[in-house]
Write a structure and sequence with these properties.
Layout: H1 9-14, H2 18-56, E1 59-64, H3 69-84, E2 89-94, H4 97-108, E3 121-127, H5 132-145, E4 149-153, H6 154-157, H7 159-197, H8 199-207, H9 212-251, H10 255-258, H11 264-296
Antiparallel strand pairs: 1-3, 1-4, 2-3
């Protein structure tokens, strides 16, 4: 079964409906504009989630919480020495107290500089092979070196962020599917309206020996062309908007947001959306026109 995609000059002469064509083109442009934005949101969120997983996978934070500064420093050195001897640990580093002071200043103010404030000692740990078993062995070794030490997984603190990202991805997928369904509905309505508008022309074509398949081909070519033209317009407009937004995101200096920029493959997928929607519109138009013509006969 042949499913042609583009209308010819003869098709346009037979089905000359410029006003309807313009309306269909701009409707498809709006549909593809919204679809590309939703798809870009989903792809960017997937990239950001992957970047977050790469940054946090296998990273632990050890807290040595002791009120006595001397005991805290002694336990921190003991934990650091134990971590550096563990095969599961790739890197362990004691966080400088000055850095901790700067991080706590927005909450504690000038009190963060007071030596009497019991600020815990922090040790950043990178595992050689990220796994729950390796993290459990490291935690056991840390507690053996200093019973007051606590081991926290950084991914646990950001699990709400990961959950929110998954929600955004699911929402973007649902939006793309809804726009595809809406596009199909628009195509069905346009095909039925075209059949009613060109009823006399179709009757003449049947008297001249044209089959239902040939008549359906006229409509599907016109609708495919309108979808493709409108889709390209909407896609280009959406890509321009995405490019401007991603440029601003890169300038913010946030690692999480910069991880959500689109890759070359993502741009290629977005560029293929007009073709995909044109195929969907062509198939939907063919089914709608053939079904309506068979019921009329």
């Amino acid at each position: 079964m042949s499913v042609a995609m583009f209308s010819t000059a003869a098709d346009r002469r037979v089905l000359d409906d410029r006003r309807g064509t313009r309306a269909m083109t701009w409707i498809m442009a709006i549909m593809l504009f919204l679809t590309v934005l939703a798809a870009a949101l989903g792809l960017g969120t997937v990239n950001a989630a992957s970047a977050l997983d790469r940054q946090l996978a296998g990273r632990l934070t050890v807290q040595v919480v002791t009120a006595d500064p001397a005991a805290r420093d002694r336990d921190a050195r003991a934990v650091l020495a134990a971590l550096q001897e563990m095969p599961a640990v790739r890197h362990a580093e004691l966080v400088d107290r000055t850095r901790l002071t700067e991080l706590l200043r927005p909450w504690l103010g000038d009190a963060s500089d007071d030596a009497d404030v019991p600020i815990p000692a922090l040790i950043d740990v990178d595992l050689s092979v990220p796994s729950e078993e390796a993290a459990a062995r490291v935690a056991a070794g840390v507690r053996a070196a200093a019973p007051t030490a606590r081991v926290d997984s950084q991914s646990r603190w950001l699990s709400p962020v990961a959950g929110f990202m998954r929600t955004l991805i699911y929402g973007a997928v649902a939006m793309v599917l809804l726009m595809a369904a809406a596009t199909t509905a628009v195509v069905l309505l346009a095909a039925r309206a075209g059949l009613e508008t060109h009823r006399d022309t179709i009757a003449i074509l049947h008297m001249l020996g044209s089959t239902d398949v040939q008549v359906a081909r006229l409509f599907q070519r016109r609708i495919a062309l309108d979808t493709m033209v409108g889709g390209v317009i909407g896609t280009l407009a959406a890509m321009l908007a995405i490019w401007l937004v991603t440029g601003q995101m890169a300038g913010l200096g946030s690692e999480l947001l910069s991880g959500g920029v689109l890759m070359r493959g993502d741009w290629l997928l977005l560029a293929l959306l007009p073709i995909l929607f044109a195929v969907v519109a062509t198939v939907a138009a063919r089914i709608a026109v053939l079904g309506r013509l068979r019921r009329v006969q």
